[in-house]
Every structure is written in C-alpha cells, then in structure tokens.
Design a protein that fits this description.
Layout: E1 3-6, H1 9-22, E2 26-34, H2 47-60, E3 63-69, E4 73-78, E5 87-91, E6 94-98, E7 106-110, E8 115-122, E9 125-132, E10 137-147, E11 150-167, E12 174-187, E13 205-211, E14 214-223, E15 239-241, H3 243-261, E16 272-276
Parallel strand pairs: 9-15
Antiparallel strand pairs: 1-10, 2-3, 2-14, 3-4, 4-7, 5-6, 7-8, 8-9, 10-11, 11-12, 11-16, 12-13, 13-14
Keywords: Signal
Pfam families: Porph_ging
Protein name: GLPGLI family protein
C-alpha cells in the first residue's frame, strides 16, 4: 500500500533541524535526457526526415547540471559547456531551433523560509521571480533501487495544471488542462530535502527524477568538500516579479507571437507552443 507524504512546514523544519546538527553540505551533478515526440503538419517532410530531426534534437538537448546545497539552501544551475546553446536540427531544407535556456541562470531555494528565487527571460528581457515554494503531496511507494553507491526509494505525485496552448493558424490561445506525473528516487542516506529544479520536500536528496519524459539522473556527489567549500549564491539579475506576474508576461509574449502568425498556415508546417503553471 502506498503511503502518502503530505509536505508540511513542521515536518520540513524538523528535517532541517536534524540536518543542521550534521552540518551537511555538498554538490550533486546531474545529466538530463529528453524523450519527446516531434510532429509537424507538412507534405514536404517524409517520416525519415522527421525521425532524423527528432534524433538530432534529442542528442543536443542533453544537458548537465549541478545542485549545490547546505542544510537549508540550494542552487540549481546548468554546467557551462561549449555545446550549451540552443538545440538545432535540419533535414530536407527544414531547420528547427529550440532554446533550452541560458547556462548562467540560477535557481535558489530556501527550505526554512519556503521561498525561491529564479532568473528567467522572455523575449530577451531578464526577470527575477521571487515567490513561495509550492509543496507537493508525494506518495511513497515502498519500491527501492540502487543508484550509484546509494539505496534510493521511489516517490510519485500527480496533479492537474492549467496551461495555455497556441499553434500556427489559431486566432486565440486555448486554455487546456494538463496532467503532470512526476516520479522521484531519493536517498535517506543523504538527509537533505533538496532536489533538481523546483522539486524538494522528500526526506533525502533526490537522485533521479522523471517528469513527462524528461529524466534527470545524478551521476556524482561531493559531500562536505573541503578543497572548494560549497557557496550558495542568490540570483540578482532582472526585474523582480512574482510567479503569477511572470506567467502573465509569458502569456503576453505568446500573444505577440500569435499576432505574428495569426491565421497564417504558412507553407504547411505547423508548430505548437504551450506554457503551464
């Protein structure tokens, strides 16, 4: 039987107090991979060309990240690399470019204060989101597996999110409901409530996370490094906005793109943009 773990502030503070007594700090290095389906309405692209573009994008969208953490704070950042720019693919005269985010954007989380700060950009403008963390209702399944040197336990959660969708040829944005299914593998052997991206709140470091086909796997961990002690950085770039204000800015950016492509089917090619809460 699954055991439901409702994240409560009292529980989190109890975990923080326990970890504080240990003074545990560290860095966890993750690699991401994406399994996605690329579709385009076109009479000019055959299935082989479609598959070639999808394979190119999948390879280029692999990224490496580092999660730096203390008992109550963490930084999440992409590891700088020469291949860290937009993912691009081409076949049969068609070129696709996907912006996977800047390498120097920082996500800061404070578990004790239940807040986060995140650098983002929309259409070339910088923003700094400051808001409260959103707790999740994790379910512990009782399943375990070995990840590297650590025994990991499985946790899941599912929730419905509001999204906005826009495709070429549409005259207005469409409100849709998405079901978000997340699976996490965490280890109590590293008793910190941190995890990659915006995920947190389990009684141990999240070593693997699967979010709708995007997988993040921890490949290396440094605990209490003495040669280069862990330093947590708070982001400071961009106009300060709340989560809801940033979502409104994203929607406005979508509207501007709609005006550019409104009612224009183009040459038969079709793309879709979706943003979620």
């Amino acid at each position: 039987m699954k055991t439901k773990l409702l994240i409560l502030l009292a529980f989190m503070m109890g975990s923080v107090s326990s970890v504080l007594s240990q003074g545990l700090t560290g860095r966890a290095y993750y690699k991401s991979s994406s399994s996605f389906r690329f579709e385009m309405d076109s009479t000019q692209m055959n299935p082989d060309q479609m598959a070639e573009i999808q394979a190119q994008l999948k390879k280029q969208m692999e990224r490496e990240y580092v999660l730096s953490f203390t008992p109550i704070e963490s930084n999440w950042k992409q590891v700088e690399s020469l291949g860290g720019g937009p993912a691009t693919a081409s076949s049969g005269g068609m070129q696709i470019v996907i912006n996977t985010g800047s390498q120097d954007r920082i996500l800061y989380k404070n578990i004790a204060e239940q807040t986060y700060e995140q650098e983002q950009d929309v259409m070339g403008k910088d923003f700094l989101i400051k808001d409260v963390l959103e707790p999740a209702e994790w379910e512990l399944t009782g399943e375990t597996k070995q990840i590297g040197d650590y025994t990991a336990q499985k946790a899941t959660y599912t929730r419905i999110v509001d999204s906005q969708r826009f495709s070429t040829g549409m005259t207005e944005m469409e409100a849709v409901k998405d079901t978000l299914e997340v699976t996490a593998w965490f280890t109590p052997e590293i008793p910190v409530p941190h995890g990659p991206e915006n995920y947190f709140g389990l009684p141990g470091l999240i070593l693997e996370l699967n979010n709708e086909g995007r997988v993040l796997i921890c490949e290396r961990i440094e605990l209490n490094p003495s040669a280069e002690p862990v330093a947590i950085v708070r982001p400071d770039r961009g106009k300060v906005v709340t989560r809801e204000e940033f979502r409104a800015i994203q929607e406005e950016g979508m509207k501007q793109m709609m005006n550019r492509y409104q009612g224009k089917p183009g040459d038969g090619n079709r793309f879709t943009i979706r943003i979620s809460n």
